[in-house]
Amino acid sequence: MTDKIYFDETTTIEDLEYEITTSGAVLKYGEFAIAVMVTDEGYAAAIYKFIETPKEDGYDWVDAPLYFIEQADGFFKDTGHAVRWAFDRMG
Q1: Helix or strand holding residue 34 (H, E)
Q2: What is the pTM of this model?
């Protein structure tokens, strides 16, 4: 059993939504995105930040590039706890 899964270093919200099942979540939060993926061990969470902003660079926000900030150590029992971890980390 592992305590982490692999999240891409760079991606978009659209690509994250494609990769994450309906049991997970992708949330835009200001200049950040939260990704929650369900696994056999529980719910994994990661935080991304926009590399380029839709307003500045003409991207639709689902296509704007994101880079990986961090991932939670271990897994959560549900999506809500995973999202709460991300909000706590972002301040």
Answers
A1: strand 32-38
A2: 0.88
